[in-house]
Structure formats: C-alpha cells, structure tokens
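Support request, please re-run this one:
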Amino acid sequence: MVVLLHLISILVGVPNVLVVRGEQYAEEEGLQDDDCVEGEDASWAIKKWILTELDKLQKYEIKYYETSMSLVKDDEGSSWYIVSDGWQGSFYYETGKPGQERVGAYLYPDYSTAIVGVWRDHLLVSGRPTYLVEACRSGSVWTLKFGELEGPIMTYSPPSHFSYGVHPLQRDPYEARTVEVWKSEQPGGEDGLFTTREVMSGEVLAFYSGLIIYCESSLRALDRRELSDEEEHFRNMYNIALDIGEEDDNLCIDIPPDMGNDVNRYNATLGHKVNHSFQPNSEFVLFAAHPVLGTIMALTALEDLPPRMEISVNYGYNFTSEPDQPEWFRTLWKQFYSNSESDHEEL
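Re-run finished. Output below.
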C-alpha cells in the first residue's frame, strides 16, 4: 500500500521515488550483497543479470501476443515478466495478480528508461516516464529506485487506420535518449537517423509506428488523379509491412510523406528516418511489447554502435524480381552490384 501511495503522489507531480524489488536467483558477478549501484551502472547490472543469467533462473514461459515472456517470481509476491529474453524490455510488479490492476514498471531495453504506473495484463492504464536511479541487492532481492515521473500521463493507445495512437509530437522516452535525426552523411541524403549513446549489438535503436492499414488497401480511394510511378513511390515511401506472420491480416504501417518528412510534424517514433544501405548496421524486427503503442516495428543494432553513428538498414527492395523501384534505389543497386562484381573479378 505504501508503494501505491507513493505512486499516486508521483503521478500528480509530488517529488518522490518508487522503490520496487525483484528476486535474483543467481549470483551476480561484481555486485555483492547489500551493494548499491547508481545511474548507468545500475542499468547495466540489471541488464547483465537478465541477458546472462536468465537461463539459470527458475522461470515460466508465457505466450505474449506475437512474442513470449519469461515469468520470474519470488516468494514475497513480486514478479518480473522478461520479454523476448530481455531484448524487448521487462515488466515488473511488486504485488498483485494477473487480470487485476497492479502497480508496476516497464523497463525499456536499455534498462534505464522506464514507465511506472498502473497496469492490467501488461497494458498501461495510467503511468508516466521515469528512469532508474539506483539498483541494490540484499541477499536474493533486488531493490530498484526510480526518479521523479516526468512528462505527460500515458496510457495504452495502439495506432489504428485513423489514429497514430499518441500525439504525433509526443517523443518516445527511450528514443529520446537513444537516437536523433540529423543531416545524413550518405551522398545525396537528406535526413538521417543517428545514435546519441553507445548501443550494443542486438539492442533496440528506434521504433517504427504510424497508421495501421491493410497493405492492399488504396491510400487514395477517392482521388481521381493519375500518379506517375515516381509519385506513387513518393506517396508510399514510409509504408512498411507489420511483420506479425499472419497472412490473413496483411497489415502495414503507413506515415503520409507530409508527416514523415517533417520531424516538426511527426516524431512520435523515428524509425522511418533510417536510410537504406546494402551493408546495414541494423535490421527491422517486430516489437510486441511497446508500453504505449503495443505491437509495432523496431530497428535493432547488428553490431555495437558508438554515439553519433548514422544508422542504416536494408529496405529489402528486390530490383531483379521487381524492377519497378524508386529511381534512387535503382541507382544504388546498380552501383553496389557493379562494384561487387568488379571486386570479385579482382580477386
């Protein structure tokens, strides 16, 4: 009850911290009993525990929409729900049962950024962003302290065919500390997506959300104008398949170009600003556990990336089987494979 009262006071703006606990069943190298670490060290301690010790923990596997979670419980009632082996973050609840509203936190994949609030079946009823301040271990129990909750009150708000789910200019707190849009370093490039901190291989870089539509539906159902191929490519430039593996659904994420081209109009997620490369340092993955948007797409790093590194991804266009591609892509395709053949001949 004390935690609930603390949480309510934070949600209305009273300075405070929320203390939560989670049991650790295995020894954590470098963090002894009653030791406390702060800031980035605290985040790394939790991340290291989850990513390296999960196989040693007593846990239960749970299906969670398009992914799975590992449930780790302690004898005192607190529980961790670790999503996709920890790569898509974790839910933590100090008390309560599934199906009931309960106080908890969602830790993003950096295990620093968090949303603390009230949840029902891992869906956010009401919460606000915060960050991990301190992680302490006493015996087999973790104690986590979070800072003051800041920013707007959030709730589970999935996108639809007519809504982005959130305000188009409501920055995601995880993206806000991980990526930024600057001038691209690629020849002829305009905007580019860059890291703002060190990111480890496999870690989420950015999210890709927008309007949810059927991929085969017309985006111009009542528009009588005939568009050229290049105009059609421009209209569809921020259209990506929502890879949920269900052929019957055939859903896509779409951001109209007048929104996607201008971060002053849409920056709720920034994954759409990544540029193409045939030698990418990231890839698209399905992200099923976003605390506000739900199931969307995301970019994950294919290698360790330093700050201020431009992120790139292979768009997956196939010029050989589908030659009707944007002009810029045809040019890059021919340049890349021409150079690849020249290098092969030299070998």
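The first strand starts at residue 18 and ends at 23. DSSP finds six helices and 20 strands in the chain.
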